[in-house]
Amino acid sequence: MAIREVRKIGDPCLEKVCKEVKAVSPRTNELIDDMFDTMYESCGVGLAAPQVGILKRIVVIDVEDDHGPIVLINPVITKRDGEQTGYEGCLSVPGKSGIVTRAENVTVEAFDRNMEKFTLDAEGLLARCIQHECDHLDGVLYTTKVEGDLLDNSQLEEMYED
Ligand code: NI
Predict the structure, then answer these.
(1) Which of 55, 140, 56 is nearest to 100 (CA)?
(2) pTM tops 0.90
């Protein structure tokens, strides 16, 4: 287990369409463990493999709810419902936030670490996080979806102090 370097906006790795995972090798397992370490270290709620320079369709998520840590391999969002508008950030865009509208509810089909297929229904923050991370696998950053300006988090804190 190790902390990996998080690629920042402008890095070509963040703009690529990632490849499907065919099998979970010991190296893949190590990558997933490292992705969790890296995400927790930075207090993030989700991380996609391209953010650590690996162009594979792997996502880790932990929004600190009853679901606990989630691994999504080759995820596909099969259903989107409703709408939520709120602030979003990304470990690859440090210190910034912006308003993004996402589906309120999603259904995602993915494979776990044993390459067993499962389906997950999510709402609210978890649904937002799944949509954000799946976008990473297609080389899409949330900054391309922000409504209005990208804000410095320091500005945001000032706004919330009122
Ligand atoms: Ni992100």
Answers:
(1) 140
(2) yes
